[in-house]
Amino acid sequence: MPYFDAASSLPPHPVARQALLAALDDGWADPARPHREGRRARMLLDAARETAAEAVGCRPDELTFTPSGTHAVHAGIAGALAGRARAGRHLLVSAVEHSAVLHAATAHRDAGGTAAEVGVDRGGRVAPADVAAALAAAPGGTGLVCVQAANHEVGTRQPVAEIAEVCRAAGVPLLVDAAQSLPWGPEPGAWSLLAASAHKWGGPGGVGLLAVRKGVRFAPARPADERESGRAPGFENIPAVVAAAASLRAFRAEAEAEAARLSELVERMRARVPELVGDTEVVGDPVHRLPHVVTFSCLHVDGEALLHALAVAGFAVSSGSSCTSSTLTPSHVLRAMGVLSEGNVRVSLPPGTTSEDVDRFLAVLPDAVAGVRAQLLPPGAADGPAADPADTADGGAAAFTVDSLGKRCPVPVIELAAHLTRVRVGGVITVLADDAAARLDIPAWCAMRGQEYLGEAPHEGGPGTAYRVRRAA
Amino acid sequence: MPYFDAASSLPPHPVARQALLAALDDGWADPARPHREGRRARMLLDAARETAAEAVGCRPDELTFTPSGTHAVHAGIAGALAGRARAGRHLLVSAVEHSAVLHAATAHRDAGGTAAEVGVDRGGRVAPADVAAALAAAPGGTGLVCVQAANHEVGTRQPVAEIAEVCRAAGVPLLVDAAQSLPWGPEPGAWSLLAASAHKWGGPGGVGLLAVRKGVRFAPARPADERESGRAPGFENIPAVVAAAASLRAFRAEAEAEAARLSELVERMRARVPELVGDTEVVGDPVHRLPHVVTFSCLHVDGEALLHALAVAGFAVSSGSSCTSSTLTPSHVLRAMGVLSEGNVRVSLPPGTTSEDVDRFLAVLPDAVAGVRAQLLPPGAADGPAADPADTADGGAAAFTVDSLGKRCPVPVIELAAHLTRVRVGGVITVLADDAAARLDIPAWCAMRGQEYLGEAPHEGGPGTAYRVRRAA
């Protein structure tokens, strides 16, 4: 039963397991103590730090082990901003950062700072020129820029080295969230801080990395603690740290060959999915990509139902659809890219995934999507002209309003498709909806169907939003 | 080679090792994911939470796993204070709390709040009436009281249930740092929050517990994160959490018998150490104690040198002497108790310590102390009347000043002892010192020697402090 949610967490690498076991006997004492047991623990911790620093491409004394990648991001952002509080209280982040970064930005705003997002193109990529422009337009000085190395939902890699140059020229440090990319290789470029997370490469949970280059101003968060240069409070889990470092090195030893192999499988999926499943949009930059992530969205599909159907077929995948989220809003990443969020599926292949695993997935996907669509769609509703008497090119009304209030994704888009032919070509159909996904998915549907999206406005005299579409064909 | 630093960290309990291994296969996925792997991880996490909650004596939904005991303390204090920000910004802590609590108090002060310490008696115990008085005297409202269940340096247990009553009557929540006591039993009384740390009972590092009783106002720290009720950000290390819960239950199964056995060994040490080693003060409450901790201080001994001598003899112990600390100040716990800090040794026995281990320690201790004293003391200097011509009861000067500036603990006290007889009985000897330990150890020496401590004053016209002692005999 293939597990295709590698970007969420990987099972322990065999080397992680071995290292963990080996370090249990010597890694339990307090490494700050001068006695024999403490010194043994310290030696393990020091050796792990050297191993991890080599993999990151930094000096051991620049590297801190943290209790998670989230903690590394939070501590890195807070520390860099506090260290440069005099230079500026403005924080610049890309619009597709991990929620850990966005939550840190919110906390910074709540504490009186300012923060802004740099947008991305339809592939999810940040333009270095946009970073430069945002730095130039920033109110007061900018304390920190955060750009992820590669996106966790769509696999798009960012031009980190170029963005680092822009930041260097502006004298602003750059924090790179390398959670998804670090297993595959060190992050090039003159970044200032870097964060990563061990369970993304088959290391244990509970271990993050935070690298802070020498010369970067950094004020550790309070309350103070003497461990890990004051950047991660609390007693270290040294066996886990040892396992994290050892498994990163082991993952890297296989990374180049595995990346080439998985990239081929991903390319196959990116090409085949739209052929096998109608009305599907493959998302993410086609060239600048992680080797193991492929993401697509399926029109007229409830993402949660599709996840369930794939799980029944034996495939564990992930989704950025709003219907799978407790927040009822579609993924901010898909939103920032402006792509369809309905029926969104992220497939992330663990090392060792075979060609046969991928073929089996491609074999079950069409039926899984068709089954989910059949539950939602009236027969023929979204697939072609309905048998409505108004359905002629010049017949039908000049305007029609669909009330989808209170209906959740993907129903508003399904109702839009079902009722489009009630208006004549050139006529305007208005969808009233209060589901957050409609804002993203109605324009995306128009682009996929060649219809003209006219925009949105508050629903006059009522709740929700009115989305207007001109029938083009 | 006995390891007598159990209060710092314990080697992994066999059950912790087994549970860790057993959970590696099923505990690596994201427990927030709906797929099979995620659900398996979630089941392990839920079961661990139930086990730990039972041991704590709270409901599972009141218990959060944190990345460390320090994190539990920091998050608990910050969350409770933020949740009651309208009720009051004053924080009350005992003077002998762990540094994690004191650092959180400092951070609270730096953020504009107020904080005060409740003192302890010479045994290290907080009087509930003192907490009541401090609450009554607090400026504005008090947001939180923090009192540890048992002290990590001297083993003194606090009257937590009584203090909880005082707090309840005042309508102020009580946070109990149970890091040292939780392995031995649940903490009774109506506490509001409780923090603990797994490596203190043979669980792995990287796992703390934070219990927050229903009804306690609590605002999680920012940045926000959806895991662990928002109280501990980042991906959980589930195998470590499982190991922590299982080993707590296993430790508890042996705790009653082991506590009785270790208490006897500790009582033997508390009785024998002063008999075997002259000028030694056993510290900590003689009755209200942890079963496995004994602490004593040795006059005219450099704590670091004694630790080293004991390590050479094969015993790993700890010390609160300033000379073993990077901060050059003696332990704040010993300072709050007003006891001698020179030559301080904390012996904390792990489960399984044998009577023979303790006897061996008692056998090597006198020579270890004597060896260290011999390095520092001129022959006979501190042990009896010096062969100084001025040494007669009515001879000698009326006043004499010893310049110990620039000399570190325990030298100022040694020089005071060596020169005391330069003044006649009733005369005053003044010691000039700039070592922080002198403030604690000169009065403690006077109490041990039956001399009259007159107090301290700034050294007029020079650096350091002038400590004045009247020769009584």
What does it look like?
Two copies of one chain form a homodimer. Chain A contains twelve helices and 14 strands. Chain A is of the alpha/beta class and 473 residues long. The first copy, chain A, has three domains: 14-251, Aspartate Aminotransferase, domain 2, CATH 3.40.640; 256-376, Aspartate Aminotransferase, domain 1 (Alpha-Beta Complex); 397-470, TusA-like domain (Translation Initiation Factor IF3, 2-Layer Sandwich), CATH 3.30.110. In chain A, strands 1-7-6-5-4-2-3 form a seven-stranded mixed beta sheet, sandwiched between helices. In chain A, strand 13 (452-458) and strand 14 form a beta hairpin. In chain A, helix 2 (36-56) runs parallel beside helix 7 and helix 3 runs parallel beside helix 4. Chain A is globular. Mean pLDDT of chain A is 92; it is low at 383-387. At the A-B interface, helix 1, helix 2, helix 3, helix 4 and helix 7 of A face helix 1, helix 2, helix 3, helix 4 and helix 7 of B.
